[in-house]
Amino acid sequence: DWQWVSNISIVYGLNNEIDINQKNTMLMTEQLKFSIRSIEKYLPWFKGKIFIITKDKSNNDLTWVDKSNKRIQIIPQSQLLPSKYKNTTKKNLFEMYLDKIPGLTERFIYIKYNHFFIKYTHPRFFLSNTFYPKYNYYSPLEKDDVKSLSEINKPLYATYNIIKKYFGESYFRSYRYLFDTPYPFYRDLFEPARQLFNEDIDEIVHNKKSAFYPIYLISNYNIYGTSQPYYPEYVSGYGEIRNKTAPILNKDRTIDYYGYDIPSVYTIEKVIHFNVAFSQNSEKNEKNIKRILNSQKIFFNLRTNNIQKFTSKNKKQLYRLMESLYQDKSSFE
Protein backbone atom coordinates (compact mmCIF):
# COMPACT_ATOMS: atom_id res chain seq x y z
CA ASP A 1 0.00 0.00 0.00
CA TRP A 2 1.77 3.10 -1.29
CA GLN A 3 -0.90 5.68 -0.46
CA TRP A 4 1.11 7.14 2.43
CA VAL A 5 4.00 8.09 0.14
CA SER A 6 1.99 10.84 -1.56
CA ASN A 7 2.74 13.12 1.41
CA ILE A 8 6.49 12.44 1.53
CA SER A 9 8.73 15.53 1.66
CA ILE A 10 11.19 16.39 -1.09
CA VAL A 11 14.25 18.47 -0.18
CA TYR A 12 16.48 20.38 -2.60
CA GLY A 13 19.87 21.65 -1.52
CA LEU A 14 21.40 24.71 -3.20
CA ASN A 15 24.94 25.14 -1.98
CA ASN A 16 26.38 27.36 -4.71
CA GLU A 17 28.38 24.64 -6.43
CA ILE A 18 28.57 27.03 -9.34
CA ASP A 19 28.82 30.79 -9.37
CA ILE A 20 25.16 31.78 -9.60
CA ASN A 21 26.19 35.35 -10.37
CA GLN A 22 27.63 34.30 -13.72
CA LYS A 23 25.75 36.11 -16.47
CA ASN A 24 24.67 34.43 -19.69
CA THR A 25 24.76 30.95 -18.18
CA MET A 26 22.04 28.50 -17.29
CA LEU A 27 21.81 29.20 -13.59
CA MET A 28 21.53 26.59 -10.92
CA THR A 29 18.13 27.94 -10.01
CA GLU A 30 16.94 27.65 -13.61
CA GLN A 31 17.85 23.97 -13.59
CA LEU A 32 16.03 23.68 -10.28
CA LYS A 33 12.89 25.10 -11.88
CA PHE A 34 12.96 22.47 -14.60
CA SER A 35 13.73 19.73 -12.09
CA ILE A 36 10.60 20.65 -10.13
CA ARG A 37 8.61 20.65 -13.36
CA SER A 38 9.85 17.11 -13.97
CA ILE A 39 8.59 16.04 -10.54
CA GLU A 40 5.13 17.44 -11.12
CA LYS A 41 4.97 15.89 -14.60
CA TYR A 42 6.33 12.42 -13.91
CA LEU A 43 5.61 11.89 -10.19
CA PRO A 44 1.87 12.64 -10.29
CA TRP A 45 1.37 10.75 -7.01
CA PHE A 46 3.48 13.33 -5.15
CA LYS A 47 1.27 15.67 -3.11
CA GLY A 48 3.75 16.53 -0.37
CA LYS A 49 5.88 19.58 0.32
CA ILE A 50 9.07 20.75 -1.38
CA PHE A 51 11.76 22.40 0.72
CA ILE A 52 14.59 24.38 -0.92
CA ILE A 53 17.66 24.89 1.27
CA THR A 54 19.64 27.97 0.24
CA LYS A 55 22.96 29.42 1.31
CA ASP A 56 21.51 32.73 2.50
CA LYS A 57 18.23 34.57 3.02
CA SER A 58 18.31 36.78 -0.07
CA ASN A 59 16.72 34.29 -2.50
CA ASN A 60 17.24 36.78 -5.33
CA ASP A 61 17.60 33.94 -7.81
CA LEU A 62 14.36 32.23 -6.77
CA THR A 63 11.96 34.96 -7.84
CA TRP A 64 10.09 32.44 -9.99
CA VAL A 65 8.97 30.46 -6.91
CA ASP A 66 5.30 31.01 -6.05
CA LYS A 67 5.58 32.03 -2.39
CA SER A 68 1.80 31.74 -1.97
CA ASN A 69 1.93 28.00 -2.64
CA LYS A 70 2.04 26.34 0.78
CA ARG A 71 3.57 23.21 -0.74
CA ILE A 72 6.93 24.88 -1.34
CA GLN A 73 9.18 26.62 1.19
CA ILE A 74 12.60 28.25 0.98
CA ILE A 75 14.80 27.78 4.05
CA PRO A 76 18.26 29.35 4.55
CA GLN A 77 20.81 26.82 5.78
CA SER A 78 21.54 29.05 8.78
CA GLN A 79 18.15 27.99 10.12
CA LEU A 80 19.34 24.37 10.24
CA LEU A 81 22.94 24.69 11.40
CA PRO A 82 23.90 25.01 15.09
CA SER A 83 25.17 28.44 16.10
CA LYS A 84 28.80 27.27 16.25
CA TYR A 85 28.68 26.50 12.52
CA LYS A 86 26.75 29.56 11.29
CA ASN A 87 29.77 31.00 9.48
CA THR A 88 31.13 27.75 8.13
CA THR A 89 32.71 27.61 4.68
CA LYS A 90 31.83 23.92 4.31
CA LYS A 91 29.19 24.22 1.62
CA ASN A 92 27.61 20.81 2.19
CA LEU A 93 27.61 20.76 6.01
CA PHE A 94 23.89 21.56 6.08
CA GLU A 95 23.27 18.05 4.72
CA MET A 96 24.06 16.67 8.19
CA TYR A 97 21.12 18.70 9.57
CA LEU A 98 18.33 18.07 7.10
CA ASP A 99 16.22 16.58 9.89
CA LYS A 100 15.98 20.08 11.40
CA ILE A 101 13.66 21.20 8.60
CA PRO A 102 10.32 22.08 10.26
CA GLY A 103 7.52 19.81 9.09
CA LEU A 104 9.82 17.26 7.41
CA THR A 105 8.23 13.81 7.04
CA GLU A 106 9.79 10.72 8.68
CA ARG A 107 10.89 9.47 5.28
CA PHE A 108 11.98 12.09 2.78
CA ILE A 109 13.79 12.39 -0.53
CA TYR A 110 16.89 14.55 -0.92
CA ILE A 111 17.36 15.64 -4.51
CA LYS A 112 19.64 17.99 -6.43
CA TYR A 113 18.88 20.76 -8.89
CA ASN A 114 20.47 18.78 -11.76
CA HIS A 115 18.17 15.75 -11.35
CA PHE A 116 15.44 15.24 -13.94
CA PHE A 117 12.68 12.69 -14.46
CA ILE A 118 11.71 11.90 -18.05
CA LYS A 119 9.12 9.13 -17.66
CA TYR A 120 6.51 8.16 -15.08
CA THR A 121 8.35 7.23 -11.87
CA HIS A 122 6.82 4.94 -9.24
CA PRO A 123 7.82 5.38 -5.56
CA ARG A 124 9.69 2.06 -5.93
CA PHE A 125 12.41 4.08 -7.65
CA PHE A 126 13.25 5.47 -4.20
CA LEU A 127 12.03 2.78 -1.80
CA SER A 128 11.91 -1.01 -1.63
CA ASN A 129 8.64 -2.94 -1.42
CA THR A 130 9.07 -2.82 2.37
CA PHE A 131 9.55 0.97 2.16
CA TYR A 132 13.29 0.87 2.91
CA PRO A 133 15.50 3.56 1.29
CA LYS A 134 17.36 2.51 -1.83
CA TYR A 135 21.01 3.56 -1.93
CA ASN A 136 22.44 3.46 -5.43
CA TYR A 137 26.12 2.54 -5.16
CA TYR A 138 28.60 1.90 -7.93
CA SER A 139 30.68 -1.27 -7.93
CA PRO A 140 33.67 -1.21 -5.52
CA LEU A 141 36.73 0.66 -6.73
CA GLU A 142 39.65 -1.36 -8.06
CA LYS A 143 42.84 -1.49 -5.97
CA ASP A 144 44.72 0.89 -8.27
CA ASP A 145 41.91 3.44 -8.00
CA VAL A 146 41.88 3.15 -4.21
CA LYS A 147 45.61 3.89 -4.07
CA SER A 148 45.12 7.26 -5.75
CA LEU A 149 41.84 8.13 -4.01
CA SER A 150 43.50 10.13 -1.23
CA GLU A 151 44.75 12.57 -3.87
CA ILE A 152 41.95 12.44 -6.43
CA ASN A 153 39.04 12.72 -4.01
CA LYS A 154 40.20 13.73 -0.55
CA PRO A 155 36.69 14.35 0.88
CA LEU A 156 35.54 10.85 -0.06
CA TYR A 157 38.72 9.31 1.33
CA ALA A 158 38.31 11.22 4.60
CA THR A 159 34.66 10.24 4.85
CA TYR A 160 35.37 6.55 4.42
CA ASN A 161 38.13 6.75 7.02
CA ILE A 162 35.53 8.00 9.50
CA ILE A 163 33.19 5.17 8.52
CA LYS A 164 35.97 2.62 8.93
CA LYS A 165 36.94 4.10 12.30
CA TYR A 166 33.48 3.69 13.81
CA PHE A 167 32.17 0.58 12.07
CA GLY A 168 35.37 -1.46 11.80
CA GLU A 169 37.19 -3.39 9.09
CA SER A 170 34.57 -6.15 8.99
CA TYR A 171 31.96 -3.63 7.79
CA PHE A 172 34.22 -1.56 5.59
CA ARG A 173 35.29 -3.81 2.72
CA SER A 174 35.55 -1.40 -0.21
CA TYR A 175 35.41 2.19 -1.40
CA ARG A 176 32.29 2.89 -3.43
CA TYR A 177 30.83 5.99 -5.03
CA LEU A 178 27.16 6.81 -4.83
CA PHE A 179 25.41 7.41 -8.12
CA ASP A 180 24.26 11.00 -8.59
CA THR A 181 20.59 10.20 -8.00
CA PRO A 182 17.97 11.23 -5.42
CA TYR A 183 18.67 9.97 -1.89
CA PRO A 184 15.83 8.70 0.33
CA PHE A 185 16.46 9.05 4.06
CA TYR A 186 14.96 8.47 7.48
CA ARG A 187 14.57 11.78 9.31
CA ASP A 188 15.11 10.27 12.74
CA LEU A 189 18.46 8.62 11.98
CA PHE A 190 20.22 11.97 11.45
CA GLU A 191 20.46 12.87 15.14
CA PRO A 192 22.03 9.56 16.27
CA ALA A 193 24.42 9.74 13.31
CA ARG A 194 25.51 13.24 14.36
CA GLN A 195 25.99 12.08 17.94
CA LEU A 196 28.22 9.26 16.75
CA PHE A 197 30.36 11.28 14.33
CA ASN A 198 30.28 14.55 16.28
CA GLU A 199 33.98 14.81 17.16
CA ASP A 200 35.14 14.07 13.63
CA ILE A 201 32.65 16.48 12.07
CA ASP A 202 33.75 19.22 14.45
CA GLU A 203 37.39 18.61 13.61
CA ILE A 204 36.76 18.77 9.86
CA VAL A 205 34.62 21.91 10.09
CA HIS A 206 37.38 23.75 11.95
CA ASN A 207 40.08 22.63 9.53
CA LYS A 208 40.00 24.78 6.40
CA LYS A 209 41.80 22.13 4.35
CA SER A 210 39.48 19.27 5.28
CA ALA A 211 36.16 18.24 3.76
CA PHE A 212 33.74 15.32 3.89
CA TYR A 213 30.52 14.01 2.37
CA PRO A 214 27.61 14.03 4.84
CA ILE A 215 25.41 11.95 2.52
CA TYR A 216 27.88 9.05 2.78
CA LEU A 217 27.97 9.25 6.57
CA ILE A 218 24.18 9.25 6.86
CA SER A 219 23.60 6.45 4.35
CA ASN A 220 26.28 4.25 5.91
CA TYR A 221 24.91 4.88 9.38
CA ASN A 222 21.55 3.69 8.08
CA ILE A 223 23.13 0.60 6.50
CA TYR A 224 25.27 -0.35 9.49
CA GLY A 225 22.86 0.51 12.27
CA THR A 226 19.78 -1.11 10.82
CA SER A 227 21.76 -4.27 9.99
CA GLN A 228 22.06 -4.82 13.73
CA PRO A 229 19.34 -7.22 14.94
CA TYR A 230 18.67 -5.27 18.15
CA TYR A 231 18.96 -1.73 16.81
CA PRO A 232 18.54 0.78 18.44
CA GLU A 233 18.60 -0.91 21.86
CA TYR A 234 22.01 -2.44 21.21
CA VAL A 235 24.59 -1.83 18.49
CA SER A 236 27.54 -4.22 18.27
CA GLY A 237 30.66 -4.10 16.14
CA TYR A 238 34.43 -3.95 16.05
CA GLY A 239 34.86 -0.23 15.51
CA GLU A 240 34.55 2.62 17.99
CA ILE A 241 30.77 2.37 17.88
CA ARG A 242 30.93 -0.50 20.37
CA ASN A 243 32.20 1.94 23.01
CA LYS A 244 29.35 4.38 22.45
CA THR A 245 26.03 4.47 24.25
CA ALA A 246 23.01 3.09 22.42
CA PRO A 247 21.32 5.66 20.17
CA ILE A 248 18.17 7.35 21.40
CA LEU A 249 15.65 7.84 18.63
CA ASN A 250 12.80 10.33 18.40
CA LYS A 251 10.15 9.20 20.88
CA ASP A 252 7.40 10.50 18.58
CA ARG A 253 8.44 8.43 15.57
CA THR A 254 5.90 6.12 13.96
CA ILE A 255 8.42 3.88 12.17
CA ASP A 256 9.31 0.83 14.26
CA TYR A 257 11.66 -0.98 11.89
CA TYR A 258 14.36 0.64 9.81
CA GLY A 259 16.20 -0.93 6.91
CA TYR A 260 17.82 -0.31 3.53
CA ASP A 261 18.17 -1.71 0.04
CA ILE A 262 21.16 -1.56 -2.32
CA PRO A 263 20.08 -2.34 -5.90
CA SER A 264 22.50 -4.00 -8.29
CA VAL A 265 24.40 -1.74 -10.67
CA TYR A 266 22.73 -3.60 -13.55
CA THR A 267 19.28 -2.77 -12.19
CA ILE A 268 20.19 0.88 -11.69
CA GLU A 269 21.63 1.36 -15.16
CA LYS A 270 18.50 -0.07 -16.79
CA VAL A 271 16.43 2.93 -15.70
CA ILE A 272 18.90 5.82 -15.41
CA HIS A 273 21.12 7.91 -17.68
CA PHE A 274 24.14 8.95 -15.66
CA ASN A 275 26.20 12.10 -16.02
CA VAL A 276 24.64 13.41 -19.20
CA ALA A 277 27.24 16.01 -20.09
CA PHE A 278 26.72 19.34 -21.83
CA SER A 279 29.86 21.17 -22.85
CA GLN A 280 31.34 23.39 -25.56
CA ASN A 281 31.13 20.45 -27.95
CA SER A 282 27.92 21.22 -29.85
CA GLU A 283 27.95 17.95 -31.77
CA LYS A 284 28.02 15.86 -28.59
CA ASN A 285 25.35 18.07 -27.08
CA GLU A 286 23.05 17.30 -30.01
CA LYS A 287 23.63 13.58 -29.55
CA ASN A 288 22.74 13.87 -25.87
CA ILE A 289 19.57 15.80 -26.70
CA LYS A 290 18.42 13.04 -29.06
CA ARG A 291 19.40 10.36 -26.56
CA ILE A 292 17.31 11.90 -23.78
CA LEU A 293 14.30 12.84 -25.91
CA ASN A 294 14.11 9.31 -27.37
CA SER A 295 14.90 7.48 -24.15
CA GLN A 296 12.68 4.94 -22.40
CA LYS A 297 14.58 5.34 -19.14
CA ILE A 298 13.04 7.37 -16.34
CA PHE A 299 15.78 9.65 -15.01
CA PHE A 300 18.99 11.49 -15.83
CA ASN A 301 21.40 13.73 -14.01
CA LEU A 302 22.91 16.64 -15.92
CA ARG A 303 26.55 17.69 -15.91
CA THR A 304 27.33 21.13 -17.32
CA ASN A 305 31.07 21.18 -17.88
CA ASN A 306 32.71 24.64 -17.85
CA ILE A 307 29.36 26.34 -18.21
CA GLN A 308 31.02 29.76 -17.92
CA LYS A 309 32.69 29.04 -21.28
CA PHE A 310 29.51 28.03 -23.10
CA THR A 311 28.85 29.73 -26.40
CA SER A 312 25.45 31.16 -27.21
CA LYS A 313 24.76 28.00 -29.22
CA ASN A 314 25.63 25.75 -26.28
CA LYS A 315 23.26 27.62 -23.99
CA LYS A 316 20.46 27.46 -26.54
CA GLN A 317 20.99 23.72 -26.88
CA LEU A 318 20.62 23.26 -23.15
CA TYR A 319 17.51 25.39 -22.93
CA ARG A 320 16.05 23.60 -25.94
CA LEU A 321 16.38 20.26 -24.17
CA MET A 322 14.75 21.60 -21.02
CA GLU A 323 11.91 23.32 -22.87
CA SER A 324 11.30 20.24 -25.00
CA LEU A 325 10.96 18.09 -21.90
CA TYR A 326 9.19 20.52 -19.57
CA GLN A 327 7.39 23.20 -21.52
CA ASP A 328 4.51 23.65 -19.06
CA LYS A 329 5.05 25.60 -15.87
CA SER A 330 4.59 23.79 -12.57
CA SER A 331 2.15 24.85 -9.87
CA PHE A 332 5.18 25.91 -7.83
CA GLU A 333 5.99 28.82 -10.17
Automatic annotation (TrEMBL):
InterPro entries: Stealth, Stealth_CR2. The keyword Ligase does not apply. It holds the Pfam family Stealth_CR2. One of its GO terms (molecular function) is transferase activity, transferring phosphorus-containing groups. Residues 30-130 form the Stealth protein CR2 conserved region domain. It comes from the Eukaryota. This is Stealth protein CR2 conserved region 2 domain-containing protein. The lineage of its organism: Eukaryota, Fungi, Fungi incertae sedis, Chytridiomycota, Chytridiomycota incertae sedis.
